[in-house]
Amino acid sequence: MNTPLFIAKRLIRKEKTNKELSKPIVRIATAGTALGMAVMILAWGIVTGFQNEIREKVLGFGSHIQVEAFGSSSKQKNPKLEINQDFYPAIDTVDGVKSVHIYALKEGVIETPENIQGIMAKGVSDDYDWSFIESHLVEGTLLFGENHKTYDLLLSKYLAQRLQLKLGDKIPIYFQNARNSMSQRNFNIVGVYETGLKELDEEFVFISIDPIRKINQWGVAAYLTFEGCIGDSISLLATGNGSDGDLRFKWNVDSLRGPGPHTFCTNQADTFYCVVTDRHRTLGDTAFFAMSNATRTCHCPEESEFTVWNSGGSYDQYTGGFEINLESYDDLDGMNDFIYEHLNYNLKTSTIKQHLPEIFNWLEMLDLNTLIIIALMIFISIINMTSALLILIMERTQMIGLLKAMGSSSWFVQKIFLYQAGYIIGIGLLVGNLLGIGLSVLQKTTGFVKLDPANYYVSEVPVNLDFSAILILNAITFFVCILALTLPSLAVTRIQPAKVMRYD
To answer: Are residues 214 and 156 in contact, defined by beta-carbon separation less than 8 angstroms?
Structure first.
């Protein structure tokens, strides 16, 4: 039988019925502990909820990890990078990786009759993960929908209001091209989003990656033109664009070079083609002239006897980089190291924390604030419980003296009061959990506490209910308080049975 626990239970039942000095003190200590636990739960839930909300918004514009070519020193510029990489798209099968997609960034300027605004155009492809933007879509549709066109545009509500734009409007955007002059592209607004993260809402627009590829001249394109016939021979002219304009032309017949026009006898081959390349090892492109009927003699074909076509260029073989989304933000640093180890020598990785250090450093500072709040609440609980415990000991001086006279050790008596303190702390924690979790659930479901998105990036106080964290908070608070109360419980060792009984 646990005798100290038995005595503690009897004392607890007696305190509930008797009107003793300790009764209001115990209630105050219980209320203090309850309030402290409620504050800890709310502080932890609000801070982690706020951190998660802001992280999700930032990651919605970017991703956890970006893979880029060496030389990408700025988030605003991407040197071209071949899409054909060993890790793409197979890396999305790695545990911890959610998705991977291509992207490119390009600075531009939107001009309207009344306003002008600098923007960052994010070019994406049909493999882009739209889940975040879709959840913040105000009106319209996303890119790459059923009727998607190359020059569709998705912009923020902030930019739409600032520039007085609406769905369906066509707007010109000016980009610096590969020759350091300005190129204009006209885009059609198909969607408007609003995330509340002003720094990014006022900067980013989403477009297809194709215009950025062509403005940057990342690939080359080959074209053939049938110039007619010279006698019985056909005359073909090759043209091309892309790269820096210094192009090479190589034909499949007679090892001819240069754009031409060149003449060919139709008995030389069924298909004539020209490969266009540049001096920078850019992936080449090929244009074709194919005869529908092979002949053994030279003749000038009718229009129905040949076909001219090209592949559209090698632009679609390039990207500005790859964005990798992870299953958990907590895996960021470890996955970044893992991915970097498996890349080719000419590639590098960077994390969202490196691209936006000011936001993530600020979020990490909030952890310190939370720890300070928790430490203060535990300290206040210890102070409250110390006062209550000392009063309980003072009220039971005669009982302590009697127990000691009967041969009980000081530790035996200490345990009686520590059991009582544990009971009071447990009641306080129970009430505090009910209050803290109740308020958290109420805020999470109703959002009755509002915030100014311009200052806090969210329209209402976000709350993260992590029951494992709440359980840990309860355990830490309980054991730290009990451990701290061991010291004031030593007051029983100063009570001498002879003096107490003589006083009685």
So the answer is: no
pTM: 0.78
| Cβ atoms 103, 76 nearer than 8 A | no
CB 310 within 8 A of CB 224: yes
Averaged pLDDT score across all residues of the chain: 86
478, 385 contact by CB (below 8 A)? no
Q: 351-374 as b/e, with b when 16 or more CB fall inside 10 Å?
A: bbbebbeebbeebeebeeebeebb
- Domain 71-216 fold is Cathepsin D, subunit A; domain 1 (2.40.70)
Question: How many CB atoms within 10 Å of residue 455?
Answer: 8
Q: Residue ranges of the domains in the chain?
A: 3-57+359-503, 71-216, 220-313
CA dist 129 → 115, 134, 176, 355, 438 (Å): 32, 9, 28, 20, 35
248-287 residue pLDDT tens? 999 988 888 999 899 988 887 888 999 999 888 889 999 9
Cα of 53 vs its chain's centroid, Å: 9
Do 266 and 295 meet the contact criterion of CB atoms below 8 Å apart?
A: yes
Cβ atoms of residues 188 and 103 within 8 Å: no
Model pLDDT for residues 444-467, shown as the tens digit of each residue? 899 888 887 777 778 888 899 889
